[in-house]
Design goal:
The chain has 20 helices and 23 strands. With 686 residues, it is α+β, with helices and mostly antiparallel strands.
Length: 686
């Protein structure tokens, strides 16, 4: 009575004769002695971060332990985007004691690869069964989570674990890390995982960001991070010089910034250490240019088609990038620096470059010098700045020590390598199964936002903003307590608060937003972007739905449940929309203006640059200049950006003062901060 099911179960006999074979779904291995070894069920085969996992094989391995009677293994996603292997074991009745997680993990590690080792173990008196007598996997409980820490602190036992514990503590901003503490429950997120991998690689440990998601603990990650396997790690290309294939975010940029594409920058400014040596700084800048090809990139418009294409120059001298300015005689040094900075920001030429500039300001013997780094957004993103600042500190320290030529750090994969693989993946239909998801999200973006003055201009000239900052106590609770309390990640909590605020403002339960994520997903086994500078941001529509119930647990669950459905953290949307063939269905389906409000969580920037005052960079400098062209029309009505600096979360709402009255945006930003405070307070003790 079910012909479709019959067709999938009874298949043609490949040996011919017109017979049929029954597909059992059992998974076996053909051994060298000619025998078949049962492994498990084929439908128990899953993928995590691009790695194929045989759940049946893990179960079979665990049941070979003399103290284990039964085992069930499943993949759980208790936090959106964080899929992990969880093992459930029933001990033998006669066993003196149930084996602990460390014992079971070590036992399984003797026959399983590190990526197949469970991240958590749960001991049960018996496995739940359904009416058919089979294991009811849906009834298996979630593993316990004591705020991200194990009940007893387990100190690192090997050099690899000691290195990783130190890196985790630095990146997460915590005093100590045990080898079984959960990275994500301690407040880790995908941006911080990139920093972990980047620092681990500099320490000689070769790994990928997907290893952080799979291992989840120092013990799990250390099993994969073996410095002796350097030969297995894809090295950066010997030379990045040459044409740049199109990347989705660059294609989006040129489509939405036609008036003044040369003026769309990112700027970082700092006060430097007393006695900074300009000659050593020049050598350090040269090391940055040698390591990061995108700092040598230029873009030109093709005659006739008007299409922009990029290429990486073979070399670029630091003298073309670094300029030294004497501010000692300036009556107002801040005003003079602001003028120099504004000139640099507005002076880029895409076709000739350079698209990266370093300004160094001498302020006199009694004043610390200033430094501003200005880059066109085409060559950097938020993650890139963390990489550049770390590299600059290391290169300057080497140059200032006079220990020899400044050698650039080991290269990771290039933007060109990633772009070529992404384009090939699109051409081969790798994202085609996501089309329905993105079409529905795009359709939801057709509902307009309320506007105080419809039809008013929305260019850089009208751009203004308002910012609110959480207290240090609320920020700590939101970053370090709430993820464990709500079993989710910080980005989901920020979006849950936004969903409630937008629903109250628009009077609609659903609002589409353009969500920005870092875009450095582990789609390809041969690509490592943990130390790569470039613009990888994935911009994709997400529908935020606020449920009728207004309590935060219900709202958070609803938002994170929807975010779980977003494939590949949004990378496929831009790839399909901008890299598909011009006549492909994807281009037509995904065409349209998109959401009118954007959201971007930039992560914890105060942790990324190390400890201020301990090296070249001493403090941030609050002189901004202007990173954008006044005449360019903005792609969104409202842009919301959140970042953690100095231990406090600041959210900025940018908008056109011609379209919105200031009290309107102030009410929204205040309501949003209040919502975050409520979420944070719900996690505080007492």
């Amino acid at each position: 009575g079910r012909p479709a099911l019959t067709a999938t179960r009874f298949v043609a006999d490949p040996a011919g004769g017109g017979g049929r074979l029954y597909r059992t779904g059992d998974l076996v291995r053909w051994r060298a002695d000619g025998r078949l070894e049962y492994v498990g069920r084929a439908d128990d085969q899953v993928k995590i971060r691009g790695l194929r996992i045989e759940l049946g094989e893990i179960e079979a391995t665990l049941t070979r332990h003399p103290a284990v009677r039964q085992a069930a293994v499943t993949v759980r996603e208790d936090r959106p985007g964080v899929r992990r292997i969880v093992a459930y074991v029933v001990p033998e009745p006669g066993a003196a004691a149930a084996p602990d997680a460390e014992t079971l993990r070590a036992f399984a590690g003797t026959s399983l690869p590190a990526y197949m080792l469970p991240a958590a173990f749960v001991t049960l008196a018996g496995l739940p069964v359904n009416a058919s007598g089979k294991t009811d996997r849906r009834a298996l409980p979630a593993p316990g989570d004591e705020g991200g820490r194990t009940a007893a602190h387990v100190a690192p036992r090997t050099e690899t674990e000691r290195v990783l514990c130190r890196i985790w503590a630095e990146v997460l901003g915590v005093d100590r890390v045990g080898v079984h503490d959960s990275f994500f429950a301690l407040g880790g997120d995908s941006i911080l995982s990139i920093q972990v991998v980047s620092r681990a690689r500099r320490a000689g440990l070769h790994m990928y960001t997907r290893d952080v998601f799979v291992g989840q603990t120092v013990a799990g990650l250390a099993a994969e991070a073996d410095a002796a396997r350097a030969a297995d790690t894809p090295a950066g290309e010997e030379s990045e010089a040459g044409p740049l294939p199109p990347v989705p975010v660059a294609e989006w940029f040129f489509a939405t910034h036609p008036e003044a594409p040369a003026h769309f920058d990112m700027t970082m400014s700092f006060t430097l250490a007393p006695g900074t040596d300009p000659a050593a700084l020049r050598l350090a800048v040269g090391a940055l240019l040698a390591r990061h090809g995108m700092l040598r990139a230029v873009y030109a418009q093709e005659p006739g088609t008007g299409r922009w294409t990029g290429r990486v120059l073979a070399e670029l001298s630091p003298e073309a990038v670094l300029t030294v300015h004497d501010l000692t005689t300036a009556p107002d040094q801040e005003a003079a620096w602001e003028a120099l900075l504004t000139d640099a920001q507005s002076g880029f030429r895409l076709d000739s470059g350079p698209l990266f500039r370093v300004l160094y300001g001498e302020r006199g013997a009694s004043s610390q010098p200033w430094l501003s780094l200005v880059a066109h957004h085409l060559v950097v993103d938020g993650v890139s700045w963390r990489i550049l600042l770390d590299d600059l500190e290391a290169a300057y320290a080497q140059a200032a020590s006079g220990s020899g030529p400044v050698a650039p750090r080991e290269r990771t994969s290039s933007v060109r390598q990633w772009a070529e693989l992404l384009a090939r993946h699109v051409a081969e239909g790798g994202f085609d199964d996501q089309l329905d998801h993105w079409r529905e999200a795009n359709e939801a973006a057709s509902d307009p936002l309320p506007v105080d003055h419809p039809g008013a201009p929305n260019t850089g000239a009208e751009l203004t903003g308002t910012a609110t900052t959480l207290s240090a106590e609320h920020t700590h609770a939101l970053l370090n307590l709430a993820p464990g309390h709500y079993r989710t990640q910080i980005n989901d909590l920020l979006l849950a608060a936004l969903a409630r605020v937008l629903a109250d403002w628009t009077g609609r339960p659903r609002t589409a937003v353009a969500l920005e994520s870092h875009g450095r997903e582990d789609l390809f086994d041969t690509v490592d972007l943990s130390g790569t500078v470039g613009w990888f941001t994935a911009i994709h529509p997400v529908v935020l739905a606020a449920p009728a119930a207004t309590d935060w647990p219900t709202t958070v669950r609803a938002v994170k449940r929807h975010l779980r459905t977003v494939p590949d953290h949004g990378v496929g949307y831009g790839a399909l929309r901008h890299l598909s063939a011009p006549d492909s269905p994807a281009r037509a389906l995904l065409d349209g203006p998109g959401p009118q409000l954007s959201f971007n969580y930039l992560g914890r920037f105060d942790l990324a640059a190390g400890t201020p005052g301990s090296g070249l960079i001493h403090a941030e400098l609050d002189i901004a200049g202007r990173d954008f062209a006044l005449g360019e029309t903005r792609p969104h009505l409202i842009d919301v950006a959140a970042v953690v600096q100095h231990g406090r979360l600041t959210t900025t709402w940018s908008y056109s003062h011609a379209q919105y009255d200031a009290p309107t945006i102030t009410r929204l930003s205040t309501a949003y901060t209040r919502a975050l405070e409520e979420i944070a307070t719900s996690c505080l003790p007492g």
